[in-house]
Amino acid sequence: MAQDSVAPRKQALGVGGKLRAGALGRRIVDLLPKSPSLGPVVYTPMLVAYVAATAVAALAVAALVITFRQDISEQLPPLTLFVGGLTIFLMSVFAVRLPGTTQAQWTPSVFIHLGLAVTFGPVGAGVGAIAEPFGVALRNHNGWFRTTFNVANGFLANVSAWLVFALVNNGQHVDGTGRALLGGLCAGLVHFVLNSGFVAVVIHLSDRRVPIAQVMRSRLAVLPYSIGYGFAAFAFVAMSGPPYGTVGFIALLAPLILLHGFLIRYTRNVHEQEIERAAHQKEREGLLQKAVEASEAERRRIARDLHDGVVQNLAGMAFALSAEASQLKGRPEAENGYAELLELLETSADETRGAMKDLRTLIIELAPPTLRREGLQAALLEVLREMKRKGTNTELDLPPNLRLREDRGALIFRVAHEVLRNVVAHAQAKNVKVELITEDGSAILSIQDDGKGFSTKEMERRRAEGHLGTAAIVELAEEAGGTLTIDSEPGRGTLVVLTLPIE
């Protein structure tokens, strides 16, 4: 049976809470992964009125049955009813969460609901209607409000299934005419419609944004189960009667119990594998973050060594060359034999200063001080200002009060800087737009230009020639758990999109 998981209340333990708080309760329930909480009930007038009306309707039906069913006092097999109710209760406690969902749980208990109802009438319907909600309450810490609704819903659906079966079968014993089989099919269908309908309305009243039709469509996946259970439910009538009795009833339950036991073990194993996978992923992310931090530290060390060593040496050399050239210019004999030497000294000084400028640019690219001191936005603005100085119109759009981990901000800057450098070198673009948004736990960077663009073959050719900038940033993105896509065509410009987990 597909059940909508009813959330535990945060204020109190609710029905069954004291039992679950004990050591035995913890050991039993913890055989399965814990169900997530959906929060306390938000009481609205319409919701309270609907649940109250459902409860009153269930009480009225019970009163009518007690008044007009003359055989209600007939001897019923208490052991069989107890076994059926206990099985439903335990299956509800050990309901298996459906894959890919956080609210839906599954048990085959609807088969037993139908079996009890069609075999023992309203009494069987009542046993099932009480057993399941209290099992769900023990599992999920439901409060009295949700448990009341679940009991009323289950009782009305079960009694309706019994009534339909009785009408179709015309009160006859099970025989080979197929009437009981048709009655079971109809009972399963009616049970599904009523149970799902009641739940759909209560979900809609709890959250008006969820249409009733949407809930019904989502529950259609369990319709074949309800019809299939109804198909076989008439067997309970035959197997629970003479000469089989309770033994025959249990024989029908045995395959379900074994199947559910297997599902419990399977679910537990899957949950443990998910925990192990999450631990491995967390460890991988930790190692990746350490690698990025080590890379950034190494970049800063190299930049510092270049600045304090090579750049200073080049500065001294440029100064010495310029000084020597100035001295030669002041000598009288400079015009006679030193013209070529003077030109060489001045050229060497200029080239040395140019090498210093290139090295300073490289140092900034290795470890941009603006990124470290002022953040991502200031660093990107610095790059875009340089592009604008060279004649490209630029636009930067970042969210206000953007907060990113240092390694994430550094990675985004590396990618953006490499892409923008390619735009300057190859795109011949007039306009460039850089945009960063945060969405669903990810940072999404997009860089779009209106340049000449390129084809896939051209990109592959450039990689083959050793231009590895694009390949490097793709690898950087993938190592950080993100993706980088490039959309370009000749004459249409280029769009580069980086999607990166924030955490």
Query: What is the distance, rounded to the nearest whole angstrom, between the alpha carbons of the first and last residues?
Result: 38 Å
Shape: rod-shaped
Poorly predicted sequence stretches spanning 5 or more consecutive residues: 1-29
Measured by DSSP, the beta-strand proportion falls in 5-15%
| CATH architecture verdict of the largest domain | Orthogonal Bundle
Helix-strand sequence:
EHHHHEEHHHHHHHHHHEHEEHHEE
Described by strand count, sense and barrel closure, the largest sheet is: 5 strands, mixed
- Quick one: CATH class of the largest domain? Mainly Alpha
Q: Assign a percent range to the helix content.
A: 55-70%
Q: How many domains make up the 3D coordinates? A: 2
The third-level CATH topology of the largest domain is: Arp2/3 complex 21 kDa subunit ARPC3
Provide the structure class.
Answer: alpha+beta
What's the pLDDT, averaged over the residues?
80
Discrete helix count: 17
Read across the widest sheet, the strand sequence of neighbours is 4-5-6-8-7
